[in-house]
Design brief:
Two copies of one chain form a homodimer.
Chain A (H helix, E strand, L loop, with lengths): L3 E7 L7 H13 L5 E7 L3 H5 L3 E3 L5 H6 L22 H13 L2 E8 L1 H16 L5 E6 L15 H22 L6 E6 L6 H6 L12 E3 L7 H15 L2 E6 L27 H13 L3 E5 L2 H5 L6 H19 L5 E7 L7 E7 H4 L20 H7 L11 E2 L2 E2 L18
């Protein structure tokens, strides 16, 4: 009998370290050629399975796979495509099984956020019902850091480091200029429903007066009067005010400060542009000259300033996912478990997909200062180790060298999927 | 007689390496204690001289001064304050002389762009007329790269590296997502009148299909129809389109694509927000889902990804400025002279301030591709060495450690300046 093959797919918004997880998966699978035949990667995620677009990663050189460890974004393509429930779209699940059977795929490793873990869990159950059991392992990934049970999510530490470094640097810039020019700087960061990323930016402020002075969290209802008062106090005291605002910052009634409209395939509202909104509010009410930045994809793809801790953890969960599969585990996800000692330590643990799926972990209120505008020492203790260490990619001619894969597709065996 | 003192000031928008020039000035002056007494730095630039706010850099430790080499922004404070002509505001020049005399300042080193070189030149001439000759040396600095004569401006290489790295990384992100989600990414970069920064972003594209696919230069009148056609062609061919747009992009009639209104102290219009404008135009006309980023101050303060070449050159022009002063030169500015060999080399040369002042160097048309949407090989040859090499700052707890100066002011001797 042919050896069982493995199917790996990247899902949802990519990060600067999701390819490090892919690297962990593929390198580990290659160490077990006795048990795992081919490692397929879905071209553009799960859609690649539906369309039978299976990238044969065995055709990639060892050095190309190794380079994935320091390559941002999704090297095989990701997708925003959520499988409906089996009841709603039985055909999709049947197609998946058909493709898996046709290519003798017995392992399904799904690298994504809460939605994806839900899908992996469903596939696991259905494959049993359908008589072609698939070992389904989730691999955590999300810059939003909102998966439950795991101490943190691979992808978060690097975006956290990027935003903290960026607001420290831009803060120094504004501090230089504030005497005669810009007094307000507003940096918008990602984080739809939870302020993890915004909170991490708070690490940049280590002494009184350091940027950022104000953080606007989704968790704290925006109070215009209180906010403007705080801005003014900062300008009076420090000469300027550096503000980090989460794209998810909202009013008491739940309205986002700036809603750009539209919705993605998961039904999430697409946000953007809260930075200029806040900057203009300050200008209108207090008259201060402002600048604003929206880092957008720059923050989640900034592999050049990735956290070494994050890279290691991303690799480790990819590696562990393969090991779990080979140990006969199913419908689980490797997680990061933080040690209890004073010095930061971590190890890989596991969680059941059913416990992870569709649960959003919010930032505890105890991480936010009493006035709602900054982080607490407890938050610093949590965040700090996650951004620790640098893991620079290789540079050539002044630019980071990122993996270029061949992405050769396996020959199709089935009819085209519409 | 007391030894002559030196006054150094930072001017205009700061960069990630202007402090490296300050480091070059101070460290070199400290090697000539026989000739130079104190090195004063203006608190917030030239305004510091007018207000007699003179930071005594001799009070800073050698390690603090050394740390300036890897600290972004203006450690002594900069300003957007342009001295009027002598005829218009004689009082200001007289005050400057009064302060310089009171503190026995015989050397004036002014670190800035074209406006500042003009000021330094004026001070040099007036000091002679006023019978208290001051040796005035300009030190080039501008992210805009628009000073004449010098091959390039310290500050530019690092912002160039930042934008090229960023669009490469964000481009990979969009490439991962484009199958089912974002197809258009627009990154706005600085550059009021010249497309140097936008052009440098073009370095990220090394093979066909690499981001950026389109660059919108201030030099090329924006043609909506042609632009949209090109965007569509990129999406059809590569699946997505990554666009770099200069804040100075404008229509044929000279109107900026997005003019945020307002003007700075030099009379330049303050720009921003062209990225969302362009992104929305594409969405409206072609229907593609978009993301956009405005890096703003992040790009010019990103010391964590500074160009090693840029850092070295910034230091060298600071060092040379002191050496020029000690050699009896006056009203000159150290410049970067590129070697003529195949392999990149550079040395410090000099230019007369009168030749530098208020001249803006535009990007040659030969650097822009025939269709106006990208750079040529000639441009690559020019840009590439300027972003070469990495010069990482020291990190602690995951964050770059930047200099914290004491900034102790010299005791005032004069009446308050109103």
């Amino acid at each position: 009998m042919a050896k069982a093959n493995l199917f790996y797919a990247q899902s949802g918004g990519v990060t600067s370290v999701i390819n490090a997880s892919a690297c962990g998966v593929i390198e580990t699978a290659r160490q077990h050629r006795d048990k795992i035949g081919k490692v397929y990667a879905g071209l553009n995620g799960i859609v690649g399975a539906l369309r039978e677009n299976l990238i044969d990663t065995n055709k990639e050189s060892a050095s190309a796979i190794a380079a994935l460890r320091s390559t941002p974004a999704g090297a095989f393509g990701s997708c925003r495509y959520k499988l409906k429930s089996y009841e709603e779209n039985q055909r999709e699940y049947e197609r998946l099984m058909e493709v898996f059977k046709a290519h003798n795929i017995r392992y399904f490793l799904y690298n994504g956020g809460g939605d994806s873990q839900d899908t992996a869990n469903k596939v696991s159950r259905l494959s049993l019902d359908m008589g072609f059991p698939i070992t389904c392992i989730g691999i955590p990934k999300t810059v939003d850091n909102d998966l439950p049970i795991t101490d943190n999510c691979p992808g978060f530490g690097s975006v956290a480091k990027y935003v903290a470094v960026s607001i420290r640097e831009a803060g120094l810039d504004v501090a230089s200029m504030c005497e005669s020019s810009t007094k307000i700087f507003v940096m918008e960061v990602m984080g739809r429903h939870a302020g993890w990323i915004a909170g991490a930016a708070g690490l940049a402020s280590e002494q009184e007066g350091d940027a950022p002075h104000i953080i606007l969290f989704p968790e704290i209802a925006f109070n215009k009067e209180k906010f403007l008062k705080k801005v003014n106090a900062c300008v009076k005291k420090f000469g300027y005010c550096a503000i980090v605002v989460s794209e998810g910052a909202k009013y008491k009634d739940g309205r986002f400060l700036a809603d750009a409209g539209g919705a993605d395939a998961f039904g999430h509202v697409q946000l953007g542009g809260v930075a200029p909104f806040v900057a203009n509010m300050v200008k209108d009410e207090l008259g201060y000259k402002y600048h604003w930045a929206v880092a957008d994809y720059l923050q989640r793809s900034a592999r050049h300033i990735a956290s070494a801790t994050d890279v290691e953890q991303a690799y480790a969960v990819g590696k562990s996912a393969v090991e779990f599969a080979l140990q006969g585990k199913n419908a689980v996800m490797p997680i990061i478990v933080r040690g209890t000692g004073k010095k930061y330590s971590w190890k890989v643990g596991e969680a059941r997909l059913s416990d992870v799926a569709n649960v959003e972990k919010m930032m505890p209120r105890s991480y936010i200062s009493r006035d709602g505008f900054h982080i607490t020492d407890k938050a610093r203790e949590y965040f700090q180790p996650l951004i620790a260490g640098e893991d620079y990619p290789e540079f050539k001619n002044g630019l980071p060298q990122y993996a270029r894969l061949k992405r050769i597709l396996e020959k199709k065996k089935l009819k085209k999927w519409e």
